[in-house]
Amino acid sequence: MSKQTERITKMEENLDTCRAAADALEKALEEFVACRKRIRELDRYYSGSQWLRDFEAWENGKLPQDLKCGVLSEDAVYDLLEDDRELIARMSAVVSRYLKEY
After folding, report:
1. What integer pLDDT is reported at residue 59 of this predicted model?
2. Which parts of the chain fold into alpha helices (H)?
3. Rounded to whole angstroms, how far apart are CA atoms 5 and 10?
4. Residues 6+ away with beta carbon under 8 Å from 9
C-alpha cells in the first residue's frame, strides 16, 4: 500500500469516526436541552417542602409499596443536579477551548 493510499485510508477513518461522534453529540445535546425544563422542575421539587412531605409519607408507609420512587432517595436528585452543573461547566470549558481554534 502506498503512503498516499495509507494517508487517504487514515483520513477516511478519521472522517467516519468524527462524523459518528458529531452526530451522537448533536443528538445528546438535543436531549440535554430538551430536559432543561424537567431539571428545573426537579430542582424546585427537591429544594422545596413538597419533597420532604413526600419522603416522610414514603417512610411512614403512606404510599403504595410498589410505587417507583427513586426521586425520594436522598442522593438521586442531588446527584443529577450536581452532574448537570458539572456538565454545563465542562461544556462551557470545552466550547471556550475549541472556539479559539476557529
Report:
1. 95
2. 3-34, 36-47, 49-59, 76-99
3. 9
4. 1
Domain boundaries, the chain: 1-34, 36-102
Q: What percent of the chain has pLDDT over 90?
A: 95
> 74 pLDDT band (50/70/90 cuts)?
confident
SS (H, E, C) 79-94: HHHHHHHHHHHHHHHH
How many CB atoms sit inside 10 A of residue 69's CB?
A: 15
The three grid cell numbers given for residue 41, joined into one nine-digit string: 422542575
Residue 85 has pLDDT above 90, yes or no: yes
In Å, how far are 35, 42, 65, 69, 83 from 51, measured between CA atoms?
20, 10, 17, 11, 20
Task: Tell the residue number behind the cell numbers 445535546, with chain if given.
Answer: 29
Q: Cell 436528585 identifies what position?
A: 77
